[in-house]
Write a structure and sequence with these properties.
The chain is an all-alpha fold. It is about 60% helix and about 0% strand. It is built from four helices and no strands.
Length: about 120
């Protein structure tokens, strides 16, 4: 018998439920292999879903003549591409050299600026 305590089980990966189990799937190619980077990327992508909601409100604004199509397309493009830029920076690990690799303050400033602009 060994006097060593049993080794703790590996913590479950909270993002693994989002990715299908088969290797080489689209999810596995889109998400980074590093668990911390993968979690930050998924959280940022989920936050960007609010941008999709904003784009839907912009489309509604155009339908009821509350705004012009050009204004809605401009806002939607800037907000969508800005969110995509945050995802790309985190996905590729470029943010890991920063003090806050999840770029929380930057994302909040960008989101608040987009809301104020809308």
């Amino acid at each position: 018998m060994s006097n060593h305590p049993p080794s703790p089980a590996a913590a479950p990966d909270p993002v693994r439920a989002l990715a299908p189990a088969r290797s080489g799937t689209v999810w596995q190619r889109m998400l980074p292999a590093d668990p911390k980077r993968r979690l930050r990327t998924v959280q940022t992508a989920m936050a960007c879903l609010f941008t999709v909601g904003g784009i839907c409100f912009m489309a509604y604004g155009v339908l009821v003549d509350a705004m012009t199509l050009a204004a809605a397309l401009t806002w939607s493009s800037v907000a969508g591409l800005g969110g995509l830029a945050f995802i790309i920076v985190m996905r590729n690990g470029w943010s890991e050299r920063l003090a806050d690799p999840s770029m929380t303050v930057g994302q909040m400033v960008f989101a608040i600026s987009c809301c104020a602009w809308a």
